Input
Amino acid sequence: MRTVILPLKSSELSTQMAAMRMWLDERGVEPSSFSCRDSGGEVIVRVDFRVTDEAAAFARRFSG
Output
């Protein structure tokens, strides 16, 4: 399993979550788990994938 961790500004969370969902749906990718936690002014998003290549592509797209 491969994990991608993304720190996001709280103000950008809804926009980024929508973009992530669209990206996943367009590629038919289903993460094995997805979680968020508040970390004082930012939100830490954790996405686990079963396929390493999918995790790497997701990280490239959303980690910058």
In short: DSSP finds two helices and three strands in the chain. The chain has a mean pLDDT of 94. The beta strands are 2-9, 33-38, 42-49.
